[in-house]
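**Fold tokens**
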Amino acid sequence: MSFLSMNFLLFLSVAILGYYVIPKRLQWVWLLLFSYIFYLASGTTAVVFILATTITTFLAGLILEYMDGKMDRELNGQTAGKLNGQTTGGLNSQTTWNPDTQPEKQTIPPPVPSSAATTSTSPLTPEQKKAVKARFKRNKKWIAAAALLINFGILAVLKYRNFAVGNINQLFGTDFALGKLILPLGISFYTFQSMGYLIDVYRGKYAPDHNLFRFALFVSFFPQILQGPIGRYDRLSDQLFGQRTFCLSRIESGLQLMLWGYFKKIVIADRAAVIVNQVFGNYESYGGIVVITAVLFYSIQLYGDFSGGMDVVMGAAECFGISLDANFKRPYFARSISDFWHRWHITLGTWMKDYVFYPFSLSKGMNKFGKYCKNHCGKHIGRVLPVCIANLLVFFLVGVWHGPAWKYIVYGLYNGVIIAASNLFAPCYQKAAKSLRVPAESRAWMVVQILRTFILVNISWYFDMAPSLGAALTMMKNTVSGFSLSALTDGSLLDLGLDKKDSVALALSCGVLFAVSFFQENHMEIRKTLARQPLAARWSVYLLLLFAIPLLGQINLTGGGFIYAQF
């Protein structure tokens, strides 16, 4: 079910209405029901895979908790049922007085409490405790690793099998058949979200959920299933399972955000996509300024599409009183590639940081490598190089996450190499800036940094949007070899699918988007400011956006979707 369809809007309306009508204790059940209805609409087969992820992760969490409890009992010197060969009784096994066999003054022992089934022994030595911890830690690792392998294995087989088989055939001259595998809706998002939960339980960050159906809602909550954000259990659980009363202002705020998201998607992104599809789809026919124009329009398309999608997702969740993690924060105002990735797909970046970057960079092997580099290459290299390698690993995985193609791997490594180089050569940059007396805190230098980052980001879009890695390299070559400014004056840019009227509409819409983003970047809270305005003023803005969508937008209510929904 596309978020751009009338069916979704009707579905969401029914879900919101029922959510506030039914008893509050059943609200989370209602969300679970509608989440699975939403998911079933994409195909019944896909449900098998989300159920597999849900059940395996849920059981693994419970097993990890059980093993923690068992370890604690052993560390406390507790055994079950026996102590030094003596059997303990239960609550009803107390000794009674028998005048024929016992002295008259014999007293009745007090009842043995039910906890007598677990009896304390002598304390363990530090060495024994260390051995117990090591044994349970090893067993927990195997359990967590098995669950991770199962779920990431499902993702790998469904998403990357044909890519792997194709490369093997090409490399070794084999003829393995390519499979016709379905790609379940949102598999990358719910897999990463579930595995983050499992790792957190393994680390002891929080206890696992003991209710399978509650956990199923965390995995499948329908607003975020298509394109994120990748949620964390400790921040979502209380919201998903809480009880909420109807609040008109909250509904209005959520629908307002959705409307703004649809404006960015339908009016801006889909119109910019006309030029993008024309040039990238016929990349051998274009060069120079035309290719540059298409890349710039792809920046517009992706910005409007991704940020618009996040607005729709977060607005829909807000209607239920649920606040999702921010996933997009005006990345084209970034002053470096590293800053860009702190603003772009934020939850994917934080997931990689918490579960890949830190474990790898702080591992024993990388610590030894850092010390070696420090002794042989200097303090700066010893400190920075392990971080650079960890970043390269992260961005390799980011590239793989984007899709089963070499172009995405190169896209990820391109970003990783730039970040690594900036870290490695930071002292050189600082010396050069000092010698050239660059005003580091000036507004002019900030603009230069933003433009520099924007150019570097646009270079990466060649790999992201081109049909293949070879196509991306061809487009890069044609950009340089066929460069000419004549396209700006001979009307070539108007032969790419947009006429003057469309171009003007897109320019005005982008102007509105830039103005809103600029004010937000300067700490103006647009939504709160709008909420304080009189009713007539607020609804004037809403109606303006609402009518702008059919009048200016490229509407396709029967299909299509957001770009990041494919992941």
Observations:
- The first helix runs from residue 6 to 21.
